[in-house]
Amino acid sequence: MKVKVINSSQKFSSIWLYSRNLCKVDNKNVSVLDAYNEFNGINLMKREFQIGVDSCLGGLFLRQELDDKDYDILHYANQTISPVKTKKVQIVTVHDNPYTFLQSGIYSSYTSTEKNFKKLIKYNIVLIKNRFLKRNMDRYKEFENVLTNSNYVGKSLREYGFTGNIKTIYLPVSPYFEKLQHKHEIRKELGLPDNRILLLSVSNNATRKNLALIEKAMKILPDRFSLVRVGTPIGNSITFQNVSNENLNKIYNACDVLLMPSIEEGLGLPIVEGFATGIPIVASDIEVFHEIGKDAVEYINPLEMQSLISGINNALENKDKMISKADKIVPQFSFQLFKEKMLDYYKKCYEI
């Protein structure tokens, strides 16, 4: 049984990492085809243009590169690329609620410095991109084998009209993420201030990440608070980009509270990474975060800045209790459990 995984996302993105984890399930029989070619362009439009091109033309690339003799199962690592016609078994992993995924703005990039003209250009690119994404999503509706990374997404797919067998298999947390000792030494190594309460934000800059709320809160919080950002900068944040899992683990361990004020998520893997590294988490009061975070998270209203500030203070006060509860959740996201479930799933799909 040979499995070919189709990755249509850039290197080190969450989808790219997911495709590599699928390979690790069975290195001999599972391989990845990267259907992603990066285009140069204006930074503002680059991400939207890239996704639009991949969703429109990706299927043409696949038809040229795929050979039916090389695989028994074709597994699309996410829902953006156009599926090909084949008589072999096909699987798609859908990572997002299709209703919100196809909204014009919520999944596009955010920056507080955009001018009206730039916003207008990007808005029109997003509209065109979403037409292709909807076309692809509607094609995947007919798939017999559909994976999701949360029960929340699975429920939304049924509401959207997916008719196949939908199964949830949680994404695994990397074994790199663990609790470390000697926080002060780690801060010194990373060049982080040792006399501040460090708030951490880990995400891309899509509008749904609600980074504007963090930016506003940092302007009001006392000077003893500093923001550490993994991704694009927010205000005067201490920013890290293109970090390895090893260094990301150190960043988690060096900080005091993880902030996840997202408006919408398909899972929210940084929450699980935060659990594994022992950092208390403040996150939005949304369905999927309750699914994975249960009672180990301080939930806030993502539309109210004061709710975020209160959540930060509560997390600092109840840190030990929150970490103790989180320790019981982490095993559900182990790679070994992911491996066992994926191998069993591939076998069942192949035998049908």
How would you characterize this protein structure?
The protein is of the alpha/beta class and about 350 residues long. It has 13 helices and twelve strands. It folds into two domains: about 5-170 and about 335-350, Rossmann fold (3-Layer(aba) Sandwich); about 185-330, Glycogen Phosphorylase B (Rossmann fold). Strand 7, helix 7 (about 210-220) and strand 8 (about 225-230) form a beta-alpha-beta unit. The longest helix has 25 residues, at about 115-140. Mean pLDDT is about 90; it is low at about 40-50. InterPro entries: Glyco_trans_1. This is Glycosyl transferase family 1 domain-containing protein. Keywords: Transferase. GO terms for molecular function: glycosyltransferase activity.
Summarize the structure.
The protein has about 350 residues and is α/β, with parallel strands linked by helices. It has two domains: about 5-170 and about 335-350, Rossmann fold (3-Layer(aba) Sandwich), CATH 3.40.50; about 185-330, 3-Layer(aba) Sandwich (Rossmann fold), CATH 3.40.50.2000.
